[in-house]
Design brief:
mainly alpha, globular, 2 domains, about 50% helix
Length: about 250
């Protein structure tokens, strides 16, 4: 219990005045310092900026803590969550997207943005940010089903499909999890079933999933294939569709 209290103390201490959370410290200076960025490759590294991912993760952590210890620093935690949710709403782009800085890219940011708002108590019905985010993600689903976002989205900050409009199983998993959290299955499950079919058909004979390309991202220029991620998110997406028949078709991964 004391360790959880310590963790909450750290989270609360790292919230910026605008409600957002950065990666490891408060944002302590100004963006113009990027003019003297010494790196030839990476952008936005001179100071620590608040991110939708870090802010969403903090909301989700505090929400989970509240369920266990509802009386501990209750008012401070509730105020922190409310400010963090407002930050996520404020940084959402007019088209309903969030730029993801730690994964590729708008599907990743959308997953964190929606999950953070849902954890803060927002719903599709009472939150225009969630509705816009769902509309944005649904507009990017491929005609064949699923999502396939290129690393070029990170560089150019414009949603870009993979060459040949191929689906990517990690992007598909992220988008599915976001939409499911926002109640898409209750409104219209068709897009989710199309996406689940992509994941099912992407499973290889040895019951594993191919990484399908870059899914990790760092500071707009560094990309990586995180090999555990395809396994995890490819299973998480279909299993969370609250309808029978789809998830059961996935083979058990041992």
């Amino acid at each position: 219990m004391e360790r959880l209290y310590d963790a909450v103390n750290v989270i609360l201490s790292l919230q910026n005045a605008d409600g957002g959370f950065a990666t490891y410290e408060l944002t302590r200076s100004y963006q113009w310092l990027e003019l003297i960025n010494p790196a030839e490759t990476f952008g936005d590294i001179v100071i620590d900026y608040p991110y939708v991912e870090c802010t969403s993760a903090s909301i989700q952590a505090l929400t989970s803590f509240k369920k266990l210890y509802p009386k501990h620093r209750r008012e401070e935690i509730e105020n922190c969550i409310a400010k963090a949710a407002k930050f996520i709403e404020n940084i959402q782009a007019p088209d309903g997207s969030w730029y993801g800085s730690w994964g590729v890219c708008f599907t990743y940011g959308g997953w964190f943005g929606i999950n953070g708002l849902v954890a803060a108590g927002k719903t599709y019905n009472n939150c225009s940010s969630i509705r816009k985010a769902c509309d944005y993600l649904l507009s990017k689903e491929l005609a064949s089903g699923g999502w396939g976002e290129s690393y070029l989205s990170c560089q150019n900050k414009v949603y870009t499909n993979l060459e040949g409009n191929k689906p990517h199983i990690v992007n598909t998993g992220w988008a599915m999890l976001a939409l499911i959290s926002a109640g898409q299955a209750e409104r219209d499950s068709t897009p989710l079933h199309r996406a689940a079919r992509i994941l099912i058909n992407s499973q290889m004979e040895e019951w594993r999933f191919s990484s399908g390309g870059d899914n990790g991202s760092l500071q707009q220029e560094l990309y990586d294939q995180l090999f555990c991620i395809p396994e995890y998110f490819s299973y998480m997406g279909p299993w969370r569709i609250p309808l029978s028949g789809t998830a059961g078709r996935l083979k058990l991964f041992v």
